[in-house]
Amino acid sequence: MLEIDDAAKRAFEQVIGKLRSVRRSARISQAALSHHIGVLGKTISEWENLRLDPTLVNLTRWSDALGWCLVVIGPDGKVLLPEPLWLLPGETRDSFGLRRLAGPLKSRRQDLPSSQKGLGRLVGVSGSSISYWELVRIPPRSIAQFVWAQKLGCSIALWPNELSGTGPYSRYGPVPRIESGG
């Protein structure tokens, strides 16, 4: 069973809180954002109030729509980048968002060195799950991504979207702003 400790939960909640803050500061309604990233109307509220966890794909879409991206921060505090740092032929933006997280964690595991099975025991999943996550075949639950990073001495954080070379609002164009509330 996935081993979610307080540090991983706190890191996940900080990312959610930052996304909420960015949305509010940009004066973007939850309804406009949910429509923009293709989720049901009240979904953003459910995520922001921690009543429902977004999938990892939706978390990367949410970040991207607000001009941010999820990245892996290494033990030295530096952003760990995947190779290559651009879309591969035929790769979707969703797959690239997942690879941007999985690639550096796979490299970190191999540098330690740690087996997929050994890391799986630490995370509370099977070695096969780690393999699928590293190959971006089946993404982990969003909170599991934070646990996976943490067990490798890394963290997941938000970073300005320019890191990926795609610029803010890259996927869909700008989200419509509102005049009040949200």
TrEMBL record:
The lineage of its organism: Bacteria, Bacillati, Actinomycetota, Actinomycetes, Catenulisporales. Residues 19-67 form the HTH cro/C1-type domain. CDD domains: HTH_XRE. GO terms for molecular function: DNA binding. InterPro entries: Cro/C1-type_HTH, Lambda_DNA-bd_dom_sf. It comes from the Bacteria. This is Transcriptional regulator, XRE family. It comes from Catenulispora acidiphila (strain DSM 44928 / JCM 14897 / NBRC 102108 / NRRL B-24433 / ID139908). Transmembrane segments: none annotated.
